[in-house]
Amino acid sequence: MILWILIAAMTAAAALSILVPLAHTRAEEPAEDVQTADEAVYRQQLEEVERDLDRGLIDPAAAEAARTEIARRLLAAHERGQNGRKSAESKSSLRTAQVIAVAVLPMFALGLYLFLGAPGMPDQPLSARMTAPAEDQSVDVLVARVEKHLAENPEDGQGWVVVAPVYMQLGKPEQAAQAYANAIRLLGRRDDWEANLGEALTVANDGIVNVAAREAFERAIALEPEAIKPRFFLALALGQEGKTEAAIAAWQDLLEGADPREAWVASAVSSLERLGGTVPEMGDGLRGPDQEQMAAASQMMPEDRQQMIEGMVAGLDARLKSDGGSADEWAQLMRAQVVLGNEDAAREAFELAQAAFEGDEEALASINDAAREFGIIKSN
């Protein structure tokens, strides 16, 4: 019953949205005889100006100004009269529009609802949608549920922990930073929460590491000296502050012995090279170019460097397709193709690796993990 009342109210509102402007238009139209009288008055005033000029009661300049103003009013009155006559001529079309609004619009709305809608479905107020099973909800509704809960229970630290990374994924770094700050205040300090707080503050500040972000990263390192994320952002901050030598040292310390397959390594190497630093020895095996190649690459133009990298990736691709290789090498190829933007080639490498290690559950698990990490397949 409530549904049909709402439909009736919406139909009435739609009809009124058409009828009211039409009614106002007709009510505001002045009568044609009024416009004719106005025109007559202005013509008479023009004649009086001419008589006054002939008798020397006004000078020519004043007469010209008076004629101009009276002529403007006369033209305006004439235009209003023309509009009034046009409106009278369209009286029948206005009545037709009113009939359509009153009779046809409700019938059209009802038919459209019966065709596209679901009349038998019970009402689903916001409260009901927010209490439905989580797997049936959109991200926005789930966030709204958590926000509602936190508004009622602001001291629930775990709730802030849950919603903070979601805010980051939704592109809301300010809210993410506040959520991490609340979690730390309520549950105590953790190196990953402090690092994530600093990252959110940096993203919210258009990539500039400000004082608050720096302090968060420093607290994270105090809790975990080997943590990668805070050391990465602090090295970035040094470069932003123009402390080139300190930034080079920070990047070299971060890259020393690092696994070159890590997602952050390429960005760190690029930042170090821009500052003129030398890339240190990284982990064995899958680094790709050796130190001499890296040094040569740092002296190249960007186009030449890109060409060299693509050549190395193509060589690895050809070797693995011809001779095969380890699961780690296939993972390296997948990552390299993703970095280069070759999504189809990355997926092809993933499929070939799966075929090569069919029956080897451990290798397949490693390959699948790498594919999920690089975004080639979706996480479960």
From TrEMBL:
Keywords: Cytochrome c-type biogenesis, Membrane, Repeat, TPR repeat, Transmembrane, Transmembrane helix. It comes from the Bacteria. Its main location: other. Coiled coil: none annotated. GO terms for biological process: cytochrome complex assembly. The keyword Transmembrane applies. It holds the Pfam family TPR_CcmH_CycH. Gene3D superfamilies: Tetratricopeptide repeat domain (1.25.40.10). It is found in: Cell envelope. The chain crosses the membrane at residues 97-116. Residues 131-256 form the Cytochrome c-type biogenesis protein H TPR domain. PANTHER family: CYTOCHROME C-TYPE BIOGENESIS PROTEIN CCMH. NCBIfam families: cytochro_ccmI. This is Cytochrome c-type biogenesis protein CcmH. It comes from Roseibium hamelinense.
